[in-house]
Amino acid sequence: MRKQDMCAIIDLNEPSAALAPLTDERPVGTMPFAGRYRLVDFPLSAISNADIRTVGIFLPKSSRSVEDHVRSGQAWDLDTITGGVFTFPYVATRDYDDPANVHRYYDNYLTFLIKSKSEYVFITGARNVSNIDVSALLHFHQASPNPITAVYRSVPTASANPEQEAFVLDADNEVTDFAASKDVAERKSNHTKPISMQMYLTRTDYLIELLSRVQNSGKFIRLPELIHQEITTAQANAFEYTGYCATVHDIPSYFQANMDMLDEEKFHSLLFSQRAIYTKNKNEAPTYFAPEADVLSSLLGTGGRVYGKLRDSVLFRNVYVDHDAQVLHSIVMQGSRIGNGAHVEYVIMDKGCVVGPDVQLVGTAEAPIVLKKGTTILDQSAAEEVLQS
Question: Where's the Glucose-1-phosphate adenylyltransferase/Bifunctional protein GlmU-like C-terminal hexapeptide domain (predicted)?
Fold first, then answer.
């Protein structure tokens, strides 16, 4: 594929309220994952692996962490003379009644698409953690006369989120509608439901015409909803993704996606397949494990120091676990510290948190305790206040 055959749009304006307080100061796309990654690394890597070199990132309200992480796109080989990473500012919901802002919303997309000089465009968000082969998606799309291809994954009916968006497929495996999973009939052949991954591929000129038509009408319809409307009126292909995928839509799903990376098969399927996952590099010393450290089934970033006990946990960069501390079934983000004799179980600690000596924090797999960024708990009474808040 020539490098200008396809461009990509990453829309980071994704619902984040159910992930608070982890999304109080960051969008879903920059949530940390698996000890060293951010969720946006996965669409960026898929784009890079497909030799796409022109990417438009449509920023959320809190965009600082996105720009700090992505920068020029060098980690994904996107800092090229032709093409590159282009960022577009957030348009607040309250401004949609202003015709000038509505015009600007569409104009940002149109300007990017026209200047890309590409034949096709891949559209995605960041909440679906996957390792999709975008080149295979393009070949699948080119083999059909339909204007849009939508990506789905087959999820066993028993484990499908009833509110998650699913496709209604016809006998030719084409998308005819969207609905909540609970309202979509099970496919009897394999007892699954086709869950949308909110990824689409279409011709660039087709999307330009679609956006121009809506812009000229004076209506405001966000791009994802616009594609939904188009799929229900035009025939759309359904492309099945069969690799590992986790949809991060709330705290339990985020917790489980990280815990999945402790499963060797899932870890290698996602991160070490034929298509590499790239991220911004941090050149640091490896984590130090003291002779008395007791570590099993855990994933650790660089630069940390471990003297205590770890079980089934994910630790990011520069985490300190003191003597006799126990960290079980937990996620501990960058720069956090766990004091001597502390017991942390089923807890998500955001960046820069401190748990003092002998403090006990115990949640559950279904409802892990979440400590917001910079939380300091020095004694058990402070821990009780956090648990009650």
Answer: 294-360
- What residue has token string 């990473």? 85
Q: Is residue 263 located within the same domain as residue 323?
A: no
**How many domains is the chain partitioned into structurally?**
2
Task: Read off the pLDDT of residues 238-295 as tens digits, 9 standing for 90 and up.
Answer: 999 999 999 999 999 999 999 999 999 999 999 998 999 999 988 889 999 999 999 9
**Contact predicate 29/13, CB 8 Å:** no
The answer to whether position 225 is within a domain reads: yes
Give 94: exposed, middle or buried? Use CB within 10 Å, 0-12, 13-18, 19+: exposed
Regarding whether 205 and 88 lie in a shared domain, the answer is yes
Give me 345's structure tokens.
């179980």
Kindly report whether the global pTM for this prediction surpasses the value 0.90.
yes
Nearest to 113 by CA among 52, 202, 5, 204: 204
Q: Is residue 166 part of a domain?
A: yes
Burial 126-162 (b: 16+ CB within 10 A, else e): bbbbbbbbbbebbebbeeeebbbbbbbbbbebeebbe
